[in-house]
Amino acid sequence: MDLSHLQFAARLLNGIERARLRTLGIEALRQCRRTQQPRSRDIAMGTFGWKLASLITETMDVTAKNELTRAGSSFSELCAGNGLDYEQMQPVLEFALWFSGAGFAYPRVGDPKLEYSYGRPVYPTVLRLTDAGVRLLDSQNDHPLLPGFLDRAATRCPGLPDGGLVPFLDAYACLEHRLARPATVLLGVAYEAFVERVIDVLVARGSLPADTLAKNGAAKRIVALRSVVPATVVDKDERYSVIAALDFADLLRERRNDGSHTTPRFAFDDIGEVEELLVSAGRHLPALWRLAQ
Fold first, then answer.
1. Cβ neighbours of 233 (radius 10 Å)
2. Cα-flanking dihedrals φ and ψ of residue 69, to 5°?
């Protein structure tokens, strides 16, 4: 491999944080997906590499863009298999491993005998999308495994307690490893912590009795919050949003209870359900937190 091409790869990828590379990588895969045959689930790593390089150079100087014209095809070749063995390509390799490990794709390789005959390890040449990967790339909606998902939710809710954010983060980590049941339970724990914090605020204001937390279980605490919505939220549209958030909290409470029992009413074999729960949790959280504002 020409040293100048490796230098270009190093310059291209230098200093890009993991979260930023994930954002760009997913967008590059979405662009690949939009330009390929509708029924194909295969995305060539070389095609992905070209799209990724183009996205990165959009924010770079003219010199970098000119370099892409000269060296872009070689960067694509580096992405397309054992070129990922070079240290300069480590960020791209880590992205491909994350994307596959999160259950969005599984890597396909070339002829293993041919590759190993040169004493080099085998690296992916194609990412074949799973059902979860198709949903992620074909949808423009938010997704719990998109970089910044939790930050976007927390930003809309200043003052959220760490007691809720920590299990929220843990649920996110479980989803990354396709662990549906613990992700659901931890998400339920997070929402219960948020509900308790809202009740603390309303008790301090005198809107709820001082013993609301002590005398009520999780279900009755949600009922108690519903009782104060008419007097606490004046705007009709906001009131509907708060009620919907409490309905979601109650649904999540039931699924969390299911996950804590040896014989749940419904199995935890649908990873898509957990993705939807996490997305809904992020969407409803600002409305729930509205009661504490």
1. 19
2. -60, -40
Q: Which domains does the chain have, with CATH numbers?
A: 3-138 (no CATH), 149-290 (1.20.120)
Q: Provide the pLDDT for residue 29.
A: 94
Alpha helices in the chain (DSSP H): 3-13, 18-35, 45-57, 62-79, 90-101, 112-116, 131-138, 149-155, 162-176, 180-205, 212-215, 218-232, 236-260, 271-290
Per-residue pLDDT for 150 more than 60?
Answer: yes
Model confidence pLDDT, tens digit, residues 22-79: 888 998 999 999 887 767 899 999 999 989 988 888 776 666 666 666 665 778 888 8
Give the CB-side neighbour count of residue 59, counting CA atoms within 13 A: 8
* Cα dihedral value 89, 92, 96, 99, nearest 10: 150
Q: 3-state class of 177 per DSSP? A: coil
Model pTM score: 0.64
